[in-house]
Amino acid sequence: MTQKVQLFITCLGEQFYPTVLEGMVTLLERLGVECQFPNAQTCCGQPFYNSGFQSEAGKLAKTWLQTFGQSEAPIVSPSGSCVDMVRHHYPELFPAGTPEHAQAVAIAQRTYEFTEYLVHVLNVTDVGAYFPHKVTYHASCHGLRGLGLRTEAKQLLGAVRGLEMIPLNEEETCCGFGGVFSVVYPEVSRAMMQNKVQNILASGAEMVVASDAGCLMNIGGGLRKAGSSMRAVHTIEILAASESNGGLKRGAQ
Amino acid sequence: MSERPTYIKFGEYTEHIPANIPAAVQQATGRFLGLRQMRVSEMPQWEELRQAASNIRLHTLENLDFYLEKLEQNVRAAGGQVHWAADAAQARATVLEIAKEHNVKLAVKVKSMATEEIGLNHALEAAGIQTYETDLGEFIIQLMGTGPSHIIVPAVHLKKEEIAELFTQKLGVEAPPDPVKLTAIARATLREKFLSAEMGVSGGNFLVAETGTLVIVTNEGNGRMCTTMPDLHVAVVGIDKVVPDWETLTVLLKLLARSATGQKLSTYTAFISGPRRAAGENGPKEFHLVLLDNGRSKILQDPVARETLKCIRCGCCLNVCPVYKNVGGFAYGWFISGPVGAIFSPQILGTEAARELPFASSLCGACADVCPVKIPIPKILLHLRRRVVEGDEFAPASAPLMVRAGAKLGTFALGVPWLYRFGTRLLPIFTAPFRKDGWMSSLPAPANLWTKVRPFPAFRANFRQWWAKRTK
């Protein structure tokens, strides 16, 4: 039986990282998974939830649940942060006993971060990728602590032929993105980002890998601000690289 | 000396953080965290201990009336006196009254967060009672005229050179930037105070209900001096510090020093059950316990935020917090800083006065991972953010109207799929003038809050078109 999944591309993924999304589809199809794309999806509401606007977030969550509730297929996303929102916070947005709450609880069980889906649902750790570069890895907070994904991305990257993984000092320390935090307290965000960028530059890697769009925007921008040509790439971009496509796709930052 | 602030300007403070603070803070917190990690790795049962501690704290808080009554009974049975203080003013008045009755001219203090909370030093000084902090760090910040910048290392933000300069200026002695010599100077200064003080003042790390025992952990021995030399002792302790019995106490003691400084146990753990009963016994002749509420019983009514009171003040959440490590403790505007300060202060001072603090976090969750009593700090931060923005039964909304209007507009646009898709198409067009090499290095307000720090990636959405083309 063919596995089917619904693609939850996330608003940041859609606006800034289309190659990550294409890579996700390519990889899933290569692994024999059929992708569906619910066209009505927008934003999961996390920026509002995290800013205290819980009733506003509740409205977006309702729309999201309607959109993804149309199919029974598991939901897969390239963002640990957005999955954490759906899995852990959606159920808190609706009072227990309401149909929305029941739906949120049920859908939370079948919503997965991409590397989590590969390693724990498909039981795949080697996707046959080829990427002959030295990379270092930043562990994104919500995937790491929210979803408890400490090893998944690294297992997948570890199986990539040609790839050399350089350890990153303070790998698990927040990069300073934090959603609205980055604009509410820009100077604190800057200090955290600079600390992360310094560690990345000192690692000696050619590029830094992370599994969340927010971190990539912040770290990628920070590297550019520091005058470095080093790129911040998504785990999926590396997993989608093969000998035939010669590495990263154009347009990745 | 911490005064109760009327409005905490976290954001404004972070715009000009003194350059030496982050380096000093990171050095010390990094050392503590490394030692803590070592201790944790020695204990395979660490996670079970944390869970047990969390259960103990929550159980006690949920039955606080019972344990407090038991505590009061047992302190009295041990010959001590118990005073209840509903707020900071009442606590200060109680201590002052006791001091006046005994004609106290000089008081020596053990490091205590509760007395910082109520601004006791200021009140004592104002009443003409000379007051000396005797913990080295507290002694330093008292001379400096500031509050603590860390829960357990109050002077963590200072380098030894700054302390030497301070001692030279304030104590009129030749002070070299050498920690051993600086400590000797403080010790010599304090020794005579210990000998002549009529009153010792402390806080308390725990209060054991079953025996009415005050527990104080210190590393410098000053706690023992303060609680045994003067004939009068007054302890000001939050009502949240009670533990049921000695068995539960040991669980918490196992976690406290390991989480705080990476020690297995602090150098001194003092157990004080009432005044001395026989000649030759150690301890004061008179023992007073002031139990401080100051908003705690109100926090208890909130089933989400109540877990804030599980805190045992180890400071570990500060040591691990990337925000704290880059801003230092003064950014948090009151005696308690870091992640736990960001959830404690808005509840005690009110969300109007401290509404910036719940937002002073990237929600990375590192604090909750290390907290020895498993306080869900990010969850409480979110709960308080909601209180600021939407208001709840504990406080009305206090966020600016503009922010609320903006959020409503944003949710509206994102809540209508066709509108969102339309916007997605327009964004790359509208932002084209700002784009260069796939980045936008400066954008108009309010997006400049992002671009002042680093460039913004170019809008480049085309997944839907790509998807539509390939599924045709």
Q: How many domains is the backbone of chain A divided into? A: 2
Identify the quaternary structure here.
Answer: heterodimer
What global shape of chain B is seen?
Answer: elongated
- Main β sheet profile of chain B: 6 strands, parallel
Gyration radius of chain B (Cα, Å) is 25 Å
Poorly predicted spans of chain A: none
- Determine the mean pLDDT of chain B: 95
Roughly what fraction of the amino acids of chain B lie in strands?
5-15%
Write a brief structural summary.
The complex is a heterodimer of chains A (253) and B (472). Chain A has 253 residues and is an alpha/beta fold. Helices cover 49% and strands 12% of the residues of chain A.
Account of the protein in words:
- The complex is a heterodimer of chains A (253) and B (472).
- With 253 residues, chain A is of the alpha/beta class.
- Chain A folds into 2 domains: 3-121, Rossmann fold (3-Layer(aba) Sandwich), CATH 3.40.50; 134-239, Rossmann fold (3-Layer(aba) Sandwich).
- Chain A has helices at 11-16, 18-30, 46-50, 54-68, 80-93, 99-108, 114-121, 141-146, 152-158, 181-184, 186-203, 213-225, 235-239, and strands spanning 3-7, 33-36, 75-77, 111-113, 134-137, 164-166, 207-210, 231-234.
- In chain A, the strands form 2 sheets. Chain A has a 4-stranded parallel β-sheet with strand order 2-1-3-4, sandwiched between helices. Chain A has a 4-stranded parallel β-sheet with strand order 6-5-7-8, sandwiched between helices.
- In chain B, the strands form 3 sheets. Chain B has a 6-stranded parallel β-sheet with strand order 1-10-7-4-2-3, sandwiched between helices.
- Chain B has helices at residues 10-14, 20-42, 46-62, 64-77, 88-101, 113-117, 120-126, 136-144, 160-171, 179-196, 222-228, 246-260, 296-300, 316-320, 322-327, 338-349, 366-370, 377-390, 401-415, 417-430, 448-451, 463-471, and strands at residues 81-85, 106-109, 130-133, 199-202, 206-208, 213-218, 232-238, 242-243, 268-272, 286-292, 435-436, 439-440, 456-457.
- Chain B is built from 22 helices and 13 strands.
- The interface between A and B is large, with 67 and 60 residues.
